[in-house]
Amino acid sequence: MNLFDVYPRYKINIVKSEGIFLWDDQNRKYLDLYGGHGVISIGHAHPAYLLAIQKQIEKIGFYSNSVEMPIQQDLATKLGEQSGYNDYNLFLCNSGAEANENALKLASFHNGKKKIIAFKNSFHGRTAAAVHVTDDQKLSAPLNKEQFEVEFLELNQSEALIKALNDPNIAAVIFEGIQGVGGLDMPSEEYLQLLAKLCKEKNIVLIADEIQSGYGRSGHFFAHQSAGIKADIISIAKGMGNGFPIGGLLINPEIESKHGMLGTTFGGNHLACAAAISVLNTLQNEDLIQHAKKIGQQLSDELSKLPKIKKLKGKGLMLGIEFDFPAKSIREELLFDYGIFTGSSANANLLRILPPLTIQFDDLKPFLFALNEILTK
Ligand SMILES: Cc1ncc(COP(=O)(O)O)c(C=O)c1O
Question: CB within 10 Å: which end of the chain, N or C, has fewer?
């Protein structure tokens, strides 16, 4: 059997990792400024993470949600404390798309409505509801196209938002703390404040998709928190498990649960929870959120001295470097000539930078040197 060929892949076989570095089967070392789509939060093969997973699997790796699992409560308590969403409830699943799928369903269960407001350039995943609120028609199969009504708004256009939210049929608004796949645009603080206020007034569920921008990457636990607002549902995945598949929803206590309303076989299994708890412990023990803010600022300051960069986007260690021309050849030179992984986005002119949050400023110097050399050639 061959693999179903849906991924364009680099001809590189990664066989080893540690911290911010990767090694291929030729023993070539790479600097990882992409974390496999922004997944690696506390660094590859972090010793605390390895130990937590190893100790857990020696006891029990998996049992289903048909029994009590105190480890899920431990995770919920820690996540509540660290995120500032102490009074919210946690639902656990396995991936980002699944988190958003459940977020949208839950909003509709809650207020009985079914129209969704999403944003231009959004990406929320590839399952039925998640792909329908994703602003990329290519990702939708014919069966995805005739679902619930969705209206895509331009980010940061207050008048259009006010007008759109006058519709009484809206179940939820879904936004990314910082747009990832779409190219690092983000809602302004004033816009988020207006959005949160209008949603509250109109009984519309506000869903913050923090799957890529959450877990400290922006310099706040969640990117939307820089605006001082609270969402009703926050979807999480990626950095939550540092590579172990896990996702979840933080849910406003006003949204009532009912047995059977949401569910999954694997979601919140013992091993996934152990991995996620060790991520939270490490974020705290190593003060990684403050660190992400500081290093992100230092990196932005240095990048702003380089030539040919049109715009720097994003925050903390979720950055986009935009040029007036396609960034593909720069990304490939960085990878093949300098051994540095960076990412792409829907915006072909943008390099996406999503390193592990443990990265130090000195580790970024080879990247700054390489980028300068490529741009001044
Ligand atoms: C903001 C956002 N939401 C949802 C998803 C989907 O997550 P997953 O690939 O785990 O289904 C992604 C993945 O890139 C994402 O960046």
Answer: N
Task: Please give the distance, rounded to the nearest whole angstrom, from the Cα atom of residue 44 to the centre of ligand 1.
Answer: 20
Counting from 1 in the atom list of ligand 1, the atom nearest the Cα of 238 is 10
Residue 125 alpha carbon to ligand 1 centre in Å: 5
In 3D space, the residue among 240, 227, 376, 220 whose CA is nearest the CA of residue 296 turns out to be 220
Listed in sequence order, the residues at least 6 apart from 197 whose beta carbon sits closer than 8 Å to its beta carbon are none
Q: What is the Å distance from ligand 1's center to 171 Cα?
A: 21
pLDDT in tens, 318-368: 999 999 999 999 999 999 999 999 999 999 999 999 999 999 999 999 999
Of all protein residues, the one whose alpha carbon is nearest to atom 3 of ligand 1 is: 124
**What tokens were used for 282?**
């490490």
Which of 104, 131, 218, 238 has the most ligand 1 atoms within 8 A of CB, as the residue to mutate? 238
Per domain, the residue ranges of the chain are 49-255+263-285
pLDDT tens string 147-203 = 999 999 999 999 999 999 999 999 999 999 999 999 999 999 999 999 999 999 999
Q: Does domain 49-255+263-285 have CATH number 3.40.640.10?
A: yes
Measured between alpha carbons, how far is residue 87 from residues 83, 156, 252 in Å? 11, 29, 8
Separation between Cα atoms, residue 90 and residue 262, nearest integer Å: 12
